[in-house]
Amino acid sequence: MKENERTIAHYDLDAFFVNVECLKNPSLKGKPLMVGGKSDRAVVAACSYEARKFGIRSAMPMKLARRLCPQAMIISGDMESYSYYSRLVTDVIRDNVPQFEKASVDEFYVDLTGMDRFFGSRSFSQDLRSKVTKETGLPISNGMAANKLVSKVATDEAKPNGQLVIPFGNEKRFLAPLAIEKLPMAGPKTTELLRQMGVVKIKTLSEIPVEMMENLMGKPGIELWRRANGIDESPVVPYSEQKSISTESTFESDTIDIRFLQAKLVQMTEKIAFELRQQNKLTGCVTVKIRYSDFNTVTKQCTIAYTALDHLLLQTVKELFSKLYDRRLLVRLIGVRFTHLVPGNYQISLFDDTDDLIRLYQEIDKLNGRFGRYLIMRASGFL
């Protein structure tokens, strides 16, 4: 192995939501399926490969998706099932590798640098894929390369249920013939701008002078140019479910005022839910803490479907508090903590909600981020 040569493996569950639904109902296999809300204003959260042949894609308005494939079945999302299987896959990977990064509910990075001299990275990755499928029933694809960027693109090219290894030194050559849409970070607006410039393939993008890209887009232009050239030094960040976001409040005087306590819980939950979304994370476990006037401290937690949405988290927090607060003693402190954090966009939970609700969360977060997190809050949070 050459000095500074890395071996990074990327694993991504194929059509994750759809395949979980097929596990629950095998008769759905091989059919065009869409997971999401059934109203015209809902969005497609996921779709089967059979549905993708009609041009359907994730995040597409459901109304348009139905036009493209009227015969497609629409299934309401079940985040509890998806969270369960995500944890199941995480356990399999944790049991087989010393260190990994959980990039979202359905994708993982593993640093296999140096493993060739002992086990063989390619065969190890294949064995791990087989174990995941055998123990969970879910197909998973794998890409392997010198960095996270190229390994992720390789996984996308290997789908469904495949493996693709990009030898060290071939990163730029591998990316060159691919469409610019396949480059992570090249979103719809960026892609449209580049296509207007006549840039269709990653090869063309990689040949544009970096100074021109900087003038065009600023620092993001430099990063996009680096990616087009297969350059990525980002490390595999070890995954730990011990990471948390929490907040506590100690009162000036002990209280038994239930309305006050509930309003405080609303404030605290909204505060750290906002932090979750700002960090682009989801939580899979909620804990509520109470310290009484005699300093006795009690906690209660609940494992939930991964989310970062206020209205779902508030429901869990209120349920935990009602079960926990049974002594009817003066309260000195209350706290809320989110754990089992994973990277992810909160929109994946909005199966039955409309794009209006998605935009509402985005606008509230934008305003609170600009003018202060308490600019917009629920009326029930006012003390």
Q: How would you characterize the overall build of this protein?
A:
The relative contact order is 0.12. The chain folds into three domains: 1-165, Reverse transcriptase/Diguanylate cyclase domain (Alpha-Beta Plaits), CATH 3.30.70.270; 173-228, 5' to 3' exonuclease, C-terminal subdomain (DNA polymerase, domain 1, Orthogonal Bundle); 245-381, DNA polymerase, Y-family, little finger domain (Dna Ligase, domain 1, 2-Layer Sandwich), CATH 3.30.1490.100. The strands form three sheets. A five-stranded mixed sheet has the order 5-6-1-7-8. The longest helix has 21 residues, at 258-278. A hairpin with a 4-residue loop joins β10 (281-292) and β11. The model is unreliable at 346-350 (pLDDT under 50). The protein contains 14 helices and 13 strands. It has helices at residues 16-24, 49-52, 62-68, 79-96, 121-136, 148-158, 171-175, 188-196, 202-207, 210-217, 219-228, 258-278, 310-324, 355-371, and strands at 8-13, 33-36, 44-47, 73-75, 100-104, 107-111, 140-145, 163-165, 245-255, 281-292, 297-307, 331-339, 342-343. By secondary structure, the chain is α+β, with helices and mostly antiparallel strands. α4 (79-96) runs antiparallel to α5 and α12 packs antiparallel against α13 (310-324). The chain is globular, with a radius of gyration of 23 Å. One of its GO terms (biological process) is DNA repair. Keywords: Cytoplasm, DNA damage, DNA repair, DNA replication, DNA-binding, DNA-directed DNA polymerase, Magnesium, Metal-binding, Mutator protein, Nucleotidyltransferase, Transferase. GO terms for molecular function: damaged DNA binding; DNA-directed DNA polymerase activity; magnesium ion binding.
